[in-house]
Design goal:
Number of domains: 1
Strand content: 15-25%
Shape: globular
Number of helices: 6
Number of strands: 8
Largest sheet: 4 strands, mixed
CATH topology: Rossmann fold
Structural class: alpha/beta
Radius of gyration: 17 Å
CATH class: Alpha Beta
CATH architecture: 3-Layer(aba) Sandwich
Order of helices and strands: EHEHEHEEHHHEEE
Strand order of the largest sheet: 3-4-6-5
Length: 209
């Protein structure tokens, strides 16, 4: 509705994210299709980096891939996992993004995509369950809650896996957490965010919807 262009970069392949009896190669292909189905509703561009699950490490290869993905997106704002996320892949994603951020405009650090002319703002989204995450900014998603749940529901293979861990189901847990964040900020449903800060640069909260 705001006219924003959305680009998604997925770091890992999802190749262990199910208990459905598939091989790693089969589930990775399924997860990519599910991701494309989920993004079809809002027209996002998607880039798959295809690193293996539980194998995301801070290496020259991953740094270059992350840097290239940021340059590919050419974003004003990056929304990503929290450094305190309990998933090691998610936490490493946050670390890699924030560490390569300082060279997104460096001419001598070459990738397939050209250097950026500006530094994007970075915000971390909520942690599952909200533990150890105190939002600094909230976005009212009341009018989009059902669209959010529909997009999550497209990840059918992962939802079946998550049912083993959540007695009320993953979609219900997402609704409850969004309702709690909405309660905190005075609306029905909301998302909470925290800003990434480095010396000489401060995230622009006006870029949040």
């Amino acid at each position: 509705e705001t006219g924003a262009e959305i680009s998604l970069a997925l770091a890992t392949s999802g190749n262990i994210g199910t208990n459905g009896g598939c091989s790693k190669e089969e589930i990775a292909a399924i997860r990519e299709k599910e991701q494309l189905d989920a993004t079809a509703g809002y027209g996002a561009r998607v880039k798959f980096l295809r690193f293996p699950d539980e194998g995301l490490q801070d290496t020259p290869e991953t740094r270059r891939a992350f840097l290239n993905a940021i340059r590919w997106a050419n974003p004003d704002v990056i929304l990503t996992h929290s450094p305190d996320d309990p998933s090691t892949d998610h936490a490493m994603t946050a670390r890699l993004i924030t560490e390569v951020l300082l060279v997104v405009g460096a001419q001598l650090v070459q990738t397939e995509e050209p250097p950026l002319s500006r530094m994007p703002s970075v915000f971390f989204w909520d942690i599952p369950g909200g533990y150890r995450f105190d939002p600094e900014a909230y976005v009212d998603i009341t009018n989009y809650m059902e669209q959010k749940l529909h997009a999550i529901a497209c990840h059918r293979s992962q939802l079946r896996w998550m049912e083993h861990f959540l007695s009320d189901g993953y979609l219900d847990s997402m609704r409850v957490q969004s309702r709690f964040r909405g309660f905190q900020c005075g609306c029905q449903y909301a998302e909470g965010f925290r800003a990434h800060r480095v010396q000489g640069f401060f995230a622009d909260y006006r870029l949040l919807p």
